[in-house]
Amino acid sequence: MKRLLKQSALCLFLLVSGCSIPTRDVRNAQQPADQNLFPISTTNSDLNSNINLNVNYVIRVVQQVGPAVVRIDSTRTVQRSPDPVIERFFPGQLPTREEVQEGLGSGFITTTDGLIFTNAHVVANADKVTVLLKDGRSFQGEVVGADSVTDVAVVKIAATELPIVKLGNSDNLMPGEPAIAIGNPLGLDNTVTQGIISATQRSVAGLGIPTERVDFIQTDAAINPGNSGGPLLNAQGEVIGMNTAIIQGAQGLGFAIPINTAQRIAAQLIEKGRVDHPYIGIQMAQLSPELREKINQSNVGITITQDRGIIILGVVRNSPAFRAGMRPGDIIESINNVAIQDTKQVQQQVEATNIGETMQITINRDGSRQQITLQPEALPTK
User: Fold this and answer.
1) Which of 151, 170, 319, 330 is catalytic?
2) Distance between CA 74 and CA 45 in Å, rounded?
């Protein structure tokens, strides 16, 4: 389980993945008989009945999904320097020692022949992956692919007729909906926690994760180290997210990758073992009077006259934006004829453009409006 440290993030490298798998809209699904979990009650008898209904729906979901939730143990060998301080001054010149690190996470089975979704950080660079089923069986896992940008990975085990989860639709979630997490926090296998969806489309920039490009589901269902890669479920027992992160020192703040995003990434990992994320190569920030003042008082040679908009702070050399002529100080006004109000909209427009397709970007440069045409490329691996 990753622990997030709150910090400001002005730097965003824009990237995205294509490919999608159609999913069923759970809002059109047949509702269970006890869907009305909290009807108005006026007597103790009615209140007890309501409590039983609430307990019963959680029990039903756990019995339905629990057998398809797995524990994932991983080991990896890393090279450690005997003195990191000296290593900084003499890189690669000191003898190193091998150290074996052990990891623990969760996952969920999506096909009867053993395809498992989990977090990339659970299995990244692992020498050995072991998958433990709820029924006690243990299998060696093969990492089909892992994408560090979205923190999604797919693991395969050699088995048949396995229990599987049902994947829901994360596009239409609303705050206040029930949420259930199943996983192996702190090594406590098959732990169940319950809460609600606290928020949707929680920006990773606001959580201080500048390298990932996922808008998280936020939940107050308890998530702890070891829950990583486990399912976040709705009241119908459908997977709506993949638990992935917490904020260090906070309570009731857990985050999950929307299952629609996880499916899209997993499909590419299964098909070609990697994900190509479109990228244009800019650093940007939301303009404000305070930021404008800081820029104008600096010695970077840029003068900003407006308080609103998305300003380019940096352009990566040899990137699509660099070759198209974008430069620090440019202010993005629109992309593909869509007016831009915040950095999230820029990201969304890049996500909507496939690698090699043309993007039309309108910028304001020193008070003059200009058109920039560029084509996103695959995000460099380094």
Assistant:
1) 151
2) 50
Name which of 239, 183, 175, 245 is nearest 212 in CA terms.
245
Report the DSSP beta bridge partners of residue 72.
105, 131
Q: Is the pTM of this model over 0.70?
A: yes
Of the candidates 74, 106, 121, 170, the residue annotated as catalytic is: 121
Tens digit of each residue's pLDDT (9 = 90 or more) over 306-327: 878 899 989 999 999 999 999 9
235 closest CA partner among 62, 110, 52, 41 = 62
Could you tell me whether strands 178-183 and 231-233 are parallel, antiparallel, or unpaired per DSSP bridges? antiparallel
Catalytic residue list contains 121: yes
CA distance 346 to 333: 10
228 is catalytic: yes
> Nearest 5 degrees, angle CA 119-CA 123-CA 129?
130
Classify residue 371 by burial, with Cβ atoms within 10 Å: 0-12, 13-18, 19+. exposed
Q: What is the pLDDT of residues 321-346, one digit of tens each?
A: 999 999 999 999 999 999 998 888 88
